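User: Before I run my own analysis I want an independent prediction to cross-check against. Here's the chain; please return only the structure tokens and, at the end, one sentence I can use as a sanity check.
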Amino acid sequence: MPLPQKNTKFKRGFKKWSDDKAIELREEIGLFASSPLCAFDLCEHLKIPIFVPHQIKGLSDRQINTLLNEGNSHWSAASIPIDDSNYIIIHNPNHSQARQQSNLMHELAHIICKHKIPIDKLNLGLTGFLRNHNEEQENEAEWFGSCLQLPRPSLMWAFKRKVKREEIAIFFNASVDLVGYSIIVTGVNRRLSYMGY
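Assistant: Structure tokens:
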């Protein structure tokens, strides 16, 4: 999942909603606000089935081989609407565990934010759906996906304990880049310095 640009503009209240929703979902599962959240567990909680290419009926061995071998670096995951309120996610199991978490969180963000595909793209089937790109929706999914994986309370918890970035990344199954980005955009380091940490 690419990280949002620092100067990206969001709808008023979106960032706060993202933090609050990430905490709310953790609480629904029985986790603390600062706990790591597994994307696979969140999919199960939200009743969103996850598939990998070889589980998709109708794909030939050649197509599966293309997706998982020479085409492996060209795709991450896709959320596909079954109807107005039900989705499935197809993801790339050959990415690293941290990348899989990020990929799934991004797709979950699209679903939770109720991002819709224009009817003209949806009518083209999977091909049109996968070619749909809405910059505002992508920015929201990138931001909220990163909040789902590493919300502000998680960073506060780690910083108070002087946990290093690499250790934060391992504990929350995130990339070091995501940790660094989240520290900057949330202002956690400045906030804790004001609090005397």
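Sanity check: The chain has eleven helices and three strands.
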